[in-house]
Task: structure prediction
Amino acid sequence: MQSMYANSILSMLKFSFIGAFIFLIFLNTCVSAQNESESIEENFDVTKSKSHESFVVPFSASNTDRKNPVIYTYEIPKDVSWILGIENNMTYNNSSESKTIIKLMENQPSEKFIELAMFEQNEKFWVAVNTNESGYIRVHEQDTDGWSRDEPIMVAHANNQGLTVTNGKRIVIDRLSLDGFSLGSIAIYGKDDTDSPINTLDGYLSFDLTYGNPRDSPLYFLPIIMLVLVGGIVFYLLKIKKRDRDDE
Result:
């Protein structure tokens, strides 16, 4: 009887030890993933000026998982008008699952975000939006030739124009209403979980944001200036041509 009791205690201790060992491995993996994302965040290459903010992240950002993404947070959310250019200059692992996920997010407690997915294989690409009213919806998806390495992906939003997205080649989303969108942060990851294979091997991902009231930028008046100049040139040419006819 004592022998059976002792064996039971030993079995319980054995399973407890195994369980504790597995838990420590899991905890260590989570901490390592979190430390990796935090170390990347500390090394953002950031440039700021009036109405402009850009940052660059290394390829390792795409090797973080969805629960521990690399996150860049803007000091002040961009809630009037903004245009974001994204350049993907990364070398991917040769796998059908190699990808980069980018989430443009509003600050909490809002659940609203814009999601971009860039895959290595066949350059698969999708754009999804998540809103409190409609939930998660993929509003554009293309399985082949969906994004360009040569030209930046452009994401633009204005309260009176909605969301517009280009894939580096053409417009794929045109003035989609999101009932406003205040850009508070950008999250980058690639793995579905911590045990997934790595996505990228080299390179970087760059983000270039221009924001603010367009009336505050000289570029806002460029179409008007061009119209005046073109109109003046046309008027001048017509006047010269009329004089030549009168001289004849």
About this structure: The CA atoms of residues 239 and 245 lie 10 Å apart. Residues 2-42 form the longest helix (41 residues).
